[in-house]
Amino acid sequence: MTNQPIVQSAGASGNITEFTLREGTDLSGMQPAGRMITDTDSGTFVYLLDDGERFVHVHFPEEIWPGMATALQSGETPVLLSGQHQLELVNFADELEMLVFNIEGNDNYGEAFSTAVEKAFSQILSA
Predict the structure, then answer these.
(1) Number of neighbours of residue 82 by Cβ within 10 angstroms
(2) CA angle, 31 as apex, 5 and 70 as ends, to 5°?
(3) Could you give the CA distance from residue 4 to residue 99 in angstroms, rounded to a whole number?
(4) 123: number of Cβ within 10 Å
(5) Cβ–Cβ contacts within 10 Å for residue 113, how many?
(6) Nearest-CA neighbor of 49 among 84, 5, 17, 83?
(7) What is the pTM of this model?
(8) How far is Cα 124 from Cα 57, in angstroms, rounded to an integer?
(9) Is 78 helix (H, G, I), strand (E, B) or coil?
(10) In 34-91, which residue ranges form alpha helices assigned H by DSSP?
(11) Beta pairing partners, 32
């Protein structure tokens, strides 16, 4: 598996948001860790997967954030897709919502990152 799997697209199947990884990323043996962090250097949200030995960081770049906002609003657990593998991203909404509200107005994440998050998740922040 690559060091940094990156989500390349977001779509939906009914009410379920589906995030698709770049081709060639293998999810076999992975389990959702149920945690999310940020990588402000690369300007991404990062969902953690556990392969039994270490955490694998799945990066959600800014162009995927509208799909993340949709997943938050749907109330359904999104899934991560790679080839024939599919993982439910447990705790995705709780973790993302906590991060978004923590980032709002908090320049500890860097002004550019904070501003981008506030813009992309404005509907969630104003709800």
Answers:
(1) 22
(2) 65
(3) 20
(4) 11
(5) 21
(6) 5
(7) 0.94
(8) 24
(9) coil
(10) 65-74
(11) 49
